[in-house]
Amino acid sequence: MNxxxxxxxxxxxxxxxxxxxFCNVFLHRNPATWEFWTFLLAAxxxxxxxxxxxxxxxxxxxxxxDQSVLEQLSVxxxxxxxxxxxxxxxxWHLVRTLTSSLAFALLLxxxxxxxx
Length: 116
Description:
- The protein has one domain.
- The protein has helices at residues 2-5, 8-15, 17-27, 34-67, 75-112.
- Helix 3 (17-27) runs antiparallel to helix 4.
- By secondary structure, it is mainly α.
């Protein structure tokens, strides 16, 4: 997975929103407004859910698969590999999905209800 997915263009699209979200926080840097806190929470959730979880949880699990020579594994070894990979990968992918969805909802709230 990592060989096909992790490349400069993908990384720009995947991680590019993180600095942009924090720029948005900086542009709305009045801690007395709820928009600031909405944007800050959205940036932090996205940074954690997309950046941290992907880099430190999902990519290492993908590396386990990448380093495995599936054609040489027995049926029992394949089942063990799947058990080792599937449950944690699905868990962290769920965390990533929920945090990025919540970040998106918070960002939308901040944008839609921002008073210029």
